[in-house]
Amino acid sequence: MSDVGGKIMVTLAIEGSGGSEVLYEVAKDVFSIGASNSNDIVIRAPGVAPHHLTIQCKGDVFTFLGQSRQVAVLNGERRSRGVLRVGDRLRIGTATLVFKGADTGGPGEVEIIEEGSAEESTRQAPSAPQREGRSEVVLYSEPSRIASARNRIVEVFRSGVQSDLLPSLRLLLADVFEDRQAMLTRVDGDGRFAPIASQWTGDLPRLPLRTFEALAEGNRYALLRLGSRELLIYPVLRGPLVSRAYFVVETNDDHQEDDELILAELSRTLAIHWDRVERSGVLHERWESEARSAVETMLPGTSQAVQLLRDAVVQASRSQNPVLLCGREGVGRLTIASLIGAQHPAGALPLQVIEVQEGGDENLRTVFFGSGPELENPADRHQGNVLVLRSIHLASATVQREVAATILADVESGSGPRVRWIATTEEDAIQMLNEGRLDPALYSLFNNHVIRVPSLQNRREDLPLLVVRLLDSVAAEQGKELKGIELGSLNSLLQHRFEGQMTELLSELGRLVTATPSGEMIRGTVPALLLPTSLGEGDDDGVSMGALLGIDDLKTVVPAVERLIIDRVLRRTKGNQSEAARILNLSRGALISKMKDFEIPDYRYLRRR
Fold first, then answer.
1. Is residue 367 within 8 Å of residue 340, measured between CB atoms?
2. N or C: which end of the chain has fewer CB within 10 A?
3. What values do phi and psi take at 451, rounded to 5?
4. Cα-flanking dihedrals φ and ψ of residue 566, to 5°?
């Protein structure tokens, strides 16, 4: 920057392809840039208006101002006006300008000039000697409408974190946008607006779903033209697991630039406080009614246990927080996980399951983080899905902490979690925590939604309704229409112990339906299970075996006989599992698995006798 004839020489560079630059030097206090030949600097490039902007010099301060609603991108930020500093990059259309001026030295004396003051209007640019050792701070007054809107936004969001935000938002929309149409809305599965806070009258506009998909990418907003009307659509929330929300405001040429600035600030502030909208209940009022109806159909019953389960499933479906499902093997934890994903307000989410096995840390790492040389982020690979970590307590403490760190990074990401995280464990998570089988860091992530899935023993009163509902489902899967179930058959089901929980119940119902011709009534029975809980050394195995031989149902007899024989051999070997496996002609792993299935003690205490 140099002084030519009492005026400042301004240098601008226009970047070309391959890193080249075209330099312009202008010795004027005010000069214009645009595509028209009447400009001081002519740039013909896509997106450059005939008269795009002017640059003005006031002492050592350079400012730019967009002409006729034209804007520029200053250092990546979309602006219609601003102050230029050395090295600033200003993009207009597809052209990029670099401000090449140089500093005049240290700060020295600072003179503050307030824009619009009498002093500024009569002030002459100082000569070069006067400028030495002196800087200026130019103060600009924010446009009154933007300043007023910003003050109202601050007032609304400082009104108390526990207050209902929606009435205040309605008043804010009415104050800031006056008599124009404006609303905060979400979008349903068909692309229709569902207003949350609105001062909209008349028909609501409708956009194709691909428009909202495009708005979810990057920092985009939309201008919808409907004949002579123009609507600004500004996203509030983005992400695969959130209910997308938007501000929609009717605008015009006089207001559009200010509306864009106001909506940008309002949408970002509301995103931070979105939990207050969630608490109002209005956002999910219709969804919750439909979700509760669907959950009640899938989880029938009147017991307190199942009522608590239904409430927990609805709450977890609406939340973004990770969920921990606790319960015995076979109670239907995966069914509950699938139900949570199916009722998500943003739409049903696909279910993916990762099986965790004892001693299988390396396999879990491969499945979870990928098998390549560089670790993959599971949140990227499973984005928009429900990811179930089945039996997470079987992983080592080290792997559990690695999983916890991955989940925490996704949950705390700026746009919210990309994956719906669900893990399953045994019945008592607190006991596993105390025993060191469940890592505290992992448990704390799931602490907001710990759901205990009750066993059938804890909801016996639900069995009649559960049997009827499940029979319809099983019959439909087999393509049969049944008249119902006889009272004797129903009583046999109600008296059965169902140690295998829902898995065994569904298996028995499937067997009964298979044996019943279509159009008939179920008449089969499920014999009471004769499984002694333990056999002492003096028990008469022949009596139990004789009772079993009187039953014709192989599905009852075979497991019972297996248990009796395994129990007898283990007592005989005083709990020596290797010797017992050899006698039984089983592998040691298979023997241990059957001991767990049949709840047979290991009898090692007999060695101390």
1. no
2. C
3. -110, 125
4. -65, -40
